[in-house]
Amino acid sequence: MKKKIKLTVWMITISLLIAAVLFVLQQHSFSMTEQKIEIDTPQGQLTGTLVLPESYSGTVGLVVFVHGDGPVNDTYDDGYKPLWEKLASAGYASLSLNKPGIGGSSGNWLEQSMEDRAQETIYAINWAKALPMIDAQAIGLWGASQAGWVIPKIVKKVPDLAFSILVSPAIQWISQGQYNTRQEMILEGFSEKEIKKREDYNAQILLLLKEQASYESYLRIAQSDDLISKEKWGFFSKNYQSDASEDLKNFTTPVHLVLGGQDINVDVEETERIYREKIPKNLLSVFYLPDADHSMLSKKNASSPLRTYLTAVFFPRHIVVEQYLDDLVHFVSQF
């Protein structure tokens, strides 16, 4: 009798495990066609993914993705796929690259300036314009965070892009870093005295950057528990003066700004104010999500790494605030 009970328990357990695996596989099956691509450029080869609707006739529009900070691969570790699927449902293709040094792309993303990032995206746009299934008059950009310094440089050189979507973009590198440091420390419960001490230390680092100091000079004042790598120091040196304020005037086609009320990385009130000042009213639309953080995660997901992980595994289409995906589909459907 006991053996039968044990066997039954094992059979139920195995059945549940198989059902869970099949469920996860089904949740990660997206209604779109993905193609790995390679683009040759003067700086080397760029690799990435081109996503097409499962069925279409004639040509389709295209959204070219411009990543935020960090060693990002073409799928953002599959985080882009729910958005790609939504765009495909609206008749749009998506194109996303691996950053240099990631996923077979040549180079090192830490050696890039914002101008370099803009140029590599322009190579991708020109490559896509030659594809027979892409409508060259319906190519737009999507970019998050650091892309806010890249996209305005792209549109200056490629003014015929149909639209630009900017999610959680900052305005000025230095002030954004200061805002993020303070907000993170407040959230983690640091005292005002501790925050001020950190700000004073960061001010020393900023002074070194302004003096074009060597990495060795930085190491002489660096805190051992928070060391910046030599590569990252070079990246900061190239880009710490980034400021989108004047470049925002480059836009001549529609701009859709998406901001989250729970964003502690970027001062969204400052971002919205300056976008409204610099971009003509008839070109700018703003969508504000009170419950979303910098990455468009809901407050519940953002506050729990475990919840975020489980949602990404079992319900990937619900990892971001639902209205975010619907809003982007509504926006691109106008073109």
UniProtKB/TrEMBL annotation:
Residues 61-297 form the Serine aminopeptidase S33 domain. Pfam families: Hydrolase_4. The chain crosses the membrane at residues 7-25. GO terms for molecular function: carboxylic ester hydrolase activity. It comes from the Bacteria. Keywords: Hydrolase, Membrane, Transmembrane, Transmembrane helix. PANTHER family: ESTERASE ESTD. This is Alpha/beta hydrolase. It comes from Paenibacillus odorifer.
